[in-house]
From TrEMBL, chains A, B, C, D:
The gene is thyX. DUMP binds at residues 105-109, 177, 204. This is Flavin-dependent thymidylate synthase. FAD binds at residues 74, 97-99, 105, 193-195, 199. PANTHER family: FLAVIN-DEPENDENT THYMIDYLATE SYNTHASE. The active site is at 204 (involved in ionization of n3 of dump, leading to its activation). It comes from Streptomyces curacoi. Homotetramer. Binds 4 FAD per tetramer. Each FAD binding site is formed by three monomers. It comes from the Bacteria.
Length: 250, 250, 250, 250
């Protein structure tokens, strides 16, 4: 550990950066429906005729509830949702722990990154209490919010200034980007099926009524909530059954 | 090894069975296109704008060829094809070795199976020559075909007769079915994306011009060929690139 | 559906076959321990020092129970068990639905299969009652057991006779084997980690005290029970926690 | 885009940070051997006797070369290596794209991170030429190295100062850490089998003699090289065959 050289700080000027709190999820493609679950499940007992099944909501809902309760998961895999997510890197890292998903992400090796960085908005609980594994998050004061915003922008601006300085000197993008914070916004294509989405939702939402309560970071929960509302719209009976049975992925 | 009791044979009568050579694949659902590959790939360099890309076939084909040649596989995962396959059990077993697919199959525990069994048709090469790992398959004589058909129907009929006898006596389906041959037809829902399909095609088709020549059993190749023609129709530029670069899955 | 030709039956003679009820599982290789779970988990909070942790059973058991209860599954993946399983094909098919396992199986394309076939032993419940999804299995009479054994040996003998007849005539193994029953014994190398094993056990054992009661076929449960006793021996604290928290894979 | 508030810079003092170029990989557990590949492969043709096979290196090497050349990959899965990797976050992100691996990582939500950050050493090529997908990396001048070191330490120090400021004010770790750069060192437990390792090596090393030349970032290649030397030591005949056949994962 040594004293390291630094560039002279330009505290009040410097690169323009955008502080952003919004995390967005857009459904860009899909083929997903409740009847599709029924058709896949019915191949067990109806064989070749299964995929021509036309059934009313009572039948569909009943079979789906049975599958969910009994944790017969495979019929929920024959469908598809692709989301475009714009979120800070630390949130995308949480998403990418899920290995049954497909991902393509914006590359800091192949393009210049934009100066857009995450800061928590005024609703975000800023402080933690309790022990690891049992944290409680509680609101910060107005001063806490100011501190976070100021600290963040100070660090982001220094980072982006040095990033640009290196790019200007012809340093490779893949090295210049190493100074950028994990709060830097990135964009990712993310594809899953209903079963892998339910698994993701179980781990990445905090719901007191869940059979297994999870404690995700709030930012990835914001991603999960937006995905969940698309899922509930496309597959309402599947989503209702998922809710009824404790949000345990089948 | 002991002499085991047998039921008296009823050689010339017995259960009606169907001998079938046809193996069918039907595309029942999908969301798959060449432009989808481009959009997923372009997120690397275009970020959020990627999914609104509209491009001509020249651009699409060029980018897809680049991805295929360089084995950048992930952009080929954001799509979806569901097939309904009717094939003998030994062929479905070959399919189910592929672990990135989703499957739901007709259940011999929950339904009575029908008396439909596979026999090779007159084009099927019947004989093997050479060592394991280097088999050559060559045509059989007319007598060979007769032998196979007669042997098959003898065994299938005995099996189905005993299956029915056990069901009639109230034996559980899951036990009665154990006598049925691996030639028994079954039905499966099978879902994959273009990347996992190309991997499947690489292993389950025999093409002399492939970079890595594979030696699948002919029956699963019949499944693969039908899937390949749907794939080529839905994603013609991806399929053309796959062909151009030696049928190696990216 | 037509009357099909059959070979004249030779009811009382014919090929020697072995009827077998025993299903065996042997642990052939492994690297699995409770302390390994702790080390992997502790990387979260101890970083580089995690893998040198030495802890007593109280600490290990406590942390493992916490991970199990909270469904933190990934620390249970850094270990390895390889089993050699000898079981009928229909049971191996149940095993091969599990896509996070690795498998290599005896090949009916590359070797002649032996005449060993499954029959239920005298303890096996033979009859089913109730509706699909809610079957109850109940004992058969002595006559039922005789019927099953006789039906099975009749079908197996006919199948093996025709299999041999085709091999003798030079028909390719991959075609001759199509007449063999799903009760034919096969051998498989099967590798998993503790997390994927717990998922397998949850689905492939029937335990009234499980949070999610499953209804596997008895034969694959026999495989699962043998694997479970090896697992309990190698990772006793992990197994105890799995039992305590309702046999839900974390 | 607005002018954002910043904390007054303390350019020459501030937190002590460590600049590190070393990326380390330690093999912490394993069960991997060439004979294990042979045993798994031989189950195809030797059935139950396969796992007792004792063979000389000629036989082992010959069979492994055959499997590699023919891309029979599954026999390479029945083994296991766990590595402890200490590397910057941007490198760990490259590792975590590999979905057949198991990972546990140091958590910035549950522990305070240390002030250790990556800088390229004097051998690292600093500059890129050419188009995306076809970059060439070339050496930087001594001034370039100085620039990178100074820019990096400026940004890292600003980031770590703000990180500490937020922690001191009681801000939650998961929020304070958002200012830290992707160059921050992290530690990960990473487990794979030989097949998934070969796939990783194919994509994460740059070898002119590979059938499919890949262009990974140098830092993840340093991880890959260290893993490769452990792999070559544990499974010398497998590694030799991998090299002989163009470093294409089977």
């Amino acid at each position: 550990m040594t004293v390291t050289p630094v560039h002279p700080a330009e505290a009040t000027t410097g690169p323009e950066i955008e502080l952003r709190s919004r995390i967005t999820v857009e459904l860009v493609d899909h083929a997903a429906s409740d009847i599709g679950v029924v058709r896949a499940a019915r191949v067990s007992t109806a064989g070749e005729r299964a995929h021509r099944e036309e059934r009313g909501d009572d039948y569909i809902g009943g079979l789906i509830r049975y599958l969910m309760r009994s944790r017969h998961g495979s019929p929920f895999e024959h469908n598809y949702m692709t989301f475009l997510v714009n979120a800070p890197i630390f949130t995308i890292r949480h998403m990418m722990r899920h290995r049954t998903w497909s991902f393509n992400e914006e590359s800091a090796r192949y393009k210049d990154l934009e100066s857009v960085f995450y800061v928590p908005d005024s609703d975000r609980l800023l402080k933690q209490e309790g022990k690891p594994g049992h944290y409680q998050y509680v609101p910060g004061t107005e001063e806490d919010h100011e501190l976070v915003t100021t600290s963040a922008s100070t660090a982001y601006r220094a980072a982006f200034r040095e990033y640009q300085r290196m790019l200007d000197a012809g340093i490779a993008r893949e090295l210049a980007r190493t100074v950028l914070p994990v709060a830097t916004y990135s964009t990712v294509y993310a594809t899953c099926n209903a079963r892998s989405l339910m698994h993701f939702l179980s781990l990445r939402t905090n719901r007191a009524d869940a059979t297994y309560v999870s404690h995700p970071q709030r930012e990835v929960e914001i991603v999960a909530e937006q995905m969940e509302s698309e899922f509930a719209r496309l597959m309402p009976l599947t989503h209702a059954a998922y809710e009824s049975y404790g949000r345990v992925s089948p």
